[in-house]
């Protein structure tokens, strides 16, 4: 039956991702004050990414500015000769040497500008490359728990989606800014020499437009800050509607209208916000243009009055008009570039804030300690931004060579505990020691973990297994083959058209897709290929068929002979031989012992065991 939406869905109408008015208020108000702060990290980045090209741009731009100044002075010479008395032909001939100087100055300037463009072309891609690597390094190095924090996600998305893009744009704008500053210095210094009063008058023509562009930039940023979460939500819904992974389930659940409704809920306020911003920007731009036009008119009137009063010669006034045009153009470029730099600087700030939040890259630890005995003392763990702890007061010891099993209902904390034992999370209470160390970085090399929902790497079958220990030297693929045989992945690979070299991703031409169970066999092979003394299995066999499951457990028994194993499973029949079984309930250790002890106890474990035994018997 279809009908009105469930009223409980109304929770969707007051979402946390709505427009955030407070975030929009927290933006800077002035460009000039902010400019040095926002440009210095960009300058530093340019210098680190492409020092030679940066030096070339600086030298060529200064030379270009000098040429421009020289050209303007030479122009006065040309105009003086042309406006002198006598026949026109004589005046033109007399002006020729100055004219040649003007042509040479501007020709040289053109050559310098071509050089600037060449050097500039090398800078932006180099900056992007460096910035991307820093971002990816930071996000790969960050503690796993950061990914459970929505604030961190917002920061990362801002840094990745906008920070990188605007860092590139601000590199271009910085080159533009330096060029326009030097252009202004050249033109304005000639103008000041011709008549000092022309310079302040000229500012009248440019400042209003500058104000408008600045306001417009700030409006854009404030709008972005208000809508950033909303924007992310729209992208998420867009992925649901367009990506391959959810496509089947959406159709199977007939959830298409639900996805569209979700889209409308988030897209409508985003559209309204964009309109609000666009209209406000158009208004300030309009005011700025009108004021700028008035300012320029006043500039020319003042120049006319100066000529009329005989304070300025006509030839100098002619050069002044050219200089005014050059200065206005350069000042406008400067205002635009600096305003854009400030706007972009705010996004670049987001990029830098993310690098800060991600912290220093983890020092690559050279000490590698064997986990040996793993001891947990009163360990508690709460996920970031969660009200309830996922684990409470867990104390247990895993002796070297033991196989322990973690069992319990869904959500009881098994995976969380396994990730703590693997050193992926740090406890929020209590302590964990692995042999002689409590530094998770020191044991990471000695842990192999097969996760509940392993990554399907969009790579070859070989890469999917070898990524378990990508730097392992494996002559003749001996370790690869052995991991494949133990996990049953060999049967999967044998059927692939290009064997180990088959690309496992439908998103690329020639790629193939595997079934859930086939992927899982590769994931198990990946864990085995890693080959480490502490082995953590989180429901490794759930999607496997009976034959593959039996093969994996057989391999597990062999592996367990000289390893410490932590096994998580809901199939209690598979944990019967574990040295010790821990039953978790709502984040606490509710029962522990051997299989026989727990059955004798007659508690939750015994109850679950009976239930499963009856279920399989009925089946
Ligand atoms: N990334 C996360 N962020 C916040 N809470 C989480 C996160 N992962 C798990 N939890 C919460 O922590 C609790 C324990 O989850 P955990 O995945 O450890 O349970 P589990 O016993 O492995 O469950 P299952 O048998 O379903 O795999 C649950 O209440 C869950 O909602």
UniProtKB/TrEMBL annotation:
* MF terms in GO: ABC-type transporter activity; ATP binding; ATP hydrolysis activity; ATPase-coupled lipid transmembrane transporter activity
Superkingdom, natural source:
Bacteria
ABC transporter domain segment(s) = 374-611
How does this protein lie in the membrane? Multi-pass membrane protein
User: Which InterPro entries does the UniProt entry name for this protein?
Assistant: AAA+_ATPase, ABC1_TM_dom, ABC1_TM_sf, ABC_transporter-like_ATP-bd, ABC_transporter-like_CS, P-loop_NTPase, Type_1_exporter
Entry's Gene Ontology cellular component terms: plasma membrane
Q: What is its main location?
A: membrane
Q: Which SMART domains match?
A: AAA (SM00382)
Keywords noted in UniProt: ATP-binding, Membrane, Nucleotide-binding, Transmembrane, Transmembrane helix
Cellular location of this protein?
Cell membrane
Ranges for domain ABC transmembrane type-1: 55-343
Its name, as the record gives it, is: ABC transporter ATP-binding protein
